[in-house]
Amino acid sequence: xxxxxxxxxxxxxxxxxxxxxxxxxxxxxxxxxxxxxxxxxxxxxxxxxxxxxxxxxxxxxxxxxxxxxxxxxxxxxxxxxxxxxxxxxxxxxxxxxxxxxxxxxxxxxxxxxxxxxxxxxxxxxxxxxxxxxxxxxxxxxxxxxxxxxxxxxxxxxxxxxxxxxxxxxxxxxxxxxxxxxxxxxxxxxxxxxxxxxxxxxxxxxxxxxxxxxxxxxxxxxxxxxxxxxxxxxxxxxxxxxxxxxxxxxxxxxxxxxxxxxxxxxxxxxxxxxxxxxxx
Length: 279
Description:
The chain is an alpha/beta fold. It has nine helices and ten strands. Helices cover 29% and strands 15% of the residues.
C-alpha cells in the first residue's frame, strides 16, 4: 500500500484512477480549495485527508509520500488562453508542485498539463528532469483532449485505442429543449465555432471548465451535453458528481459539475500511466 499526495486534486480523479490501476492506497492526501470539488471527493472517498491550499502544504509535515500527482492550473499555458505563461499567477502554482517534489522526494511523480509552447514545455521538463509524453484522451474515450504528462513512472506507452465515439456515451433518452432559432443564433456566434456537433460526430471537442456556456451543443438533438455525458467523456463513473440530499434534491449544481469535469482528468489515461508502477 502507498501514500499519495495529490495537489490540485479537484474531485479526486486520481483516486478513481488508482482503483482502476489496482493500486492499493494507505493514505491519500489531497490539496484542493474548491468547496464543491471537495464535497464531491468526500462524498465518494470519505477517508480522503484534505490539506487545503497548496501554498500551506509542506512535505516535512507528511509521512513518506510514495506518489505525488497533480495537474497544475493551465490557464496561463493553454493555446486557448492569453499565453501569459509563468507570469500568470495560476500557472505559477506549478512551482509549488516542484517545491513539494523536492520536499517529499516521492518514489514516483506525475504532472499533467495542456499542450503549450515548446519554450514553456522545456522549462517544466528541465525542472522535473523528465521528458513529457503527449497522450490524446480520444484513445480511451469519446473526447479529443490532448495533454502532456511528465512522469518518472517507467515504460509509458500510448494507450490502446478503444474506439469509443460520441454516439457511444450519449443518453439518447434526454429530450432536446432548444429551439431551432436559438441553435442557429448560437452557431452564428464565433465562440460556438468549436463547440457544436451532432450525434454522428466521431469525437467530442475538449471539455472546458467555464460552465455550461462552453459545453458542446448537439445540433440534431437540440440540446447540450448533460453532466452525465461529460462524466462519460472523462471516463468518470456515471453520476460521480451527482449528489442528492435526503429529499432527493440535487446538492451540487450542474454548473459546478460541468466546471469540475472540465477541470478534471480523463481517468482511464491516468490509470494507464499508473499501471506502470505495478509493472
